[in-house]
UniProtKB/TrEMBL annotation:
Keywords (A to Z) from UniProt: Hydrolase, Purine metabolism
Lineage of the species this protein comes from: Eukaryota, Fungi, Dikarya, Ascomycota, Saccharomycotina
Domain of life: Eukaryota
Catalytic activity, as annotated: allantoate + H2O = (S)-ureidoglycolate + urea
Cross-referenced Gene3D superfamilies: Galactose-binding domain-like
Coiled-coil intervals: none
Protein's UniProt name: allantoicase
Role of this protein: Utilization of purines as secondary nitrogen sources, when primary sources are limiting.
GO molecular function, one term: allantoicase activity
Length: 336
């Protein structure tokens, strides 16, 4: 287990949470969920606690909780990833508010399933991603492998030994998108489903930058990227996105849906073509090429900007001036 800061630097800013509900991840099978539903594990918002709330089953918990006295080795939940497939690197297991009823140990396994029929699941080859490890009560645990799994997977199985409760589960990896054979096909390579990752960001006080790359337009301000108010003249906020593939950029979409009193005043977009993340220059470097110049933003609106000459980019940077919130960021083009 490593620290939260190390996990953020080594995993969150380099990989994607491939099982999140907001990405399309969903539970397909669970051994038991008497006290609290397993679907809560992959909800995007942090867990909460209401000690005054009770249900027919007992005390209400914002997480997954099974019955006591499990006679099997472990309870389990199987989750279909929200992406086509992914290689896996690590996970977060949060036992927030489970104290005295938390899962004492967990393990994570994965499989590539072409069918979700019961017999296929039962006879699948489940490979170990994170071996059985101890968990403590009411805390966040961060587990990382030495390297990505050799294989790509579609489904994951979280086991807790022998029973208990877990509030949230995040599983990170590299998305392996289904790319078109037709190189003239138009696609959004910033999309998380196509392998886009927000690798650097100036600030994400109210909403994380990775939300920019999610499918759809979301449901409120909570699932966008929003920075704190700036007070210094000349301040800007920015996010750098590694595209899922080198892209000849045709259009850029900046969506301020639901941001009505806190949208940016202006935005711009720049791009660069480099071999790896460590070759990406600083946000204020002159090496960046302007794709879309400073453009006046409007509240609660999808802004589409054509990009001249279709430059090839591996990474793009969205800058908001001076601060504010953006819901989605799309980079539309063809594979280079």
């Amino acid at each position: 287990m490593i620290s939260e800061q190390q996990f953020r630097e080594d995993v969150v800013l380099k990989y994607t949470d491939v099982i999140g509900e907001n990405l399309g991840g969903h539970v397909i099978k669970v051994s038991d969920e008497w006290f609290a539903k397993a679907e809560n594990l992959i909800k995007p918002k942090p867990p909460i606690r209401d000690a005054t709330r009770f249900t027919h089953a007992g005390a209400w918990y914002d997480g997954w909780e099974t019955r006591r006295h499990n006679q099997e080795e472990a309870d389990y939940v199987i989750i279909r990833m929200g992406v086509s497939s992914a290689k896996l690197i690590g996970c977060e297991v949060d036992t927030a508010f489970f104290n005295g009823n938390h899962a004492p140990h967990i393990s994570v396994e994965a499989a590539f399933l072409e069918s979700e029929k019961s017999d296929k699941i039962e006879h699948a080859q489940w490979d170990t991603v994170i071996a059985k490890v101890e968990c403590g009560p009411s805390q966040r645990h961060f587990f990382v492998r030495d390297s990505l799994t050799d294989k790509a997977y579609t489904h994951v199985r979280l086991r807790m030994y022998p029973d208990g409760g877990i509030a949230r589960f995040r599983l990170y990896g590299t998305v392996l998108p289904v790319l078109p054979h037709d190189r003239s096909a138009i696609m959004d390579t910033a999309s998380v489903k196509n392998g886009g990752v927000a690798i650097r960001v100036s600030d994400q006080h109210f909403g994380v930058a990775s939300n920019l790359l999610l499918p759809g337009r979301g449901h409120d301000m909570s699932d966008g990227w929003e920075t704190k108010r700036s007070r210094e003249p000349g301040h800007v906020d920015w996010v750098i996105v590694r595209l899922g593939a080198r892209t000849a950029v045709r259009d850029v979409v900046i969506d301020t849906a639901h941001f009505r009193g806190n949208f940016p005043q202006y935005t711009n977009v720049k791009g660069i073509d480099v071999e790896s993340d460590d070759k990406v220059p600083a946000y204020n470097s002159s090496e960046w090429k302007v794709l879309v110049g400073d453009s006046k933003a409007a509240p609660d609106k999808e802004h589409t900007y054509p990009v001249d000459n279709h430059p090839v980019c591996s990474h793009v940077m969205l800058t908001i001036i001076p601060d504010g919130g953006v819901k989605r960021f799309r980079v539309i083009g063809t594979l280079a």
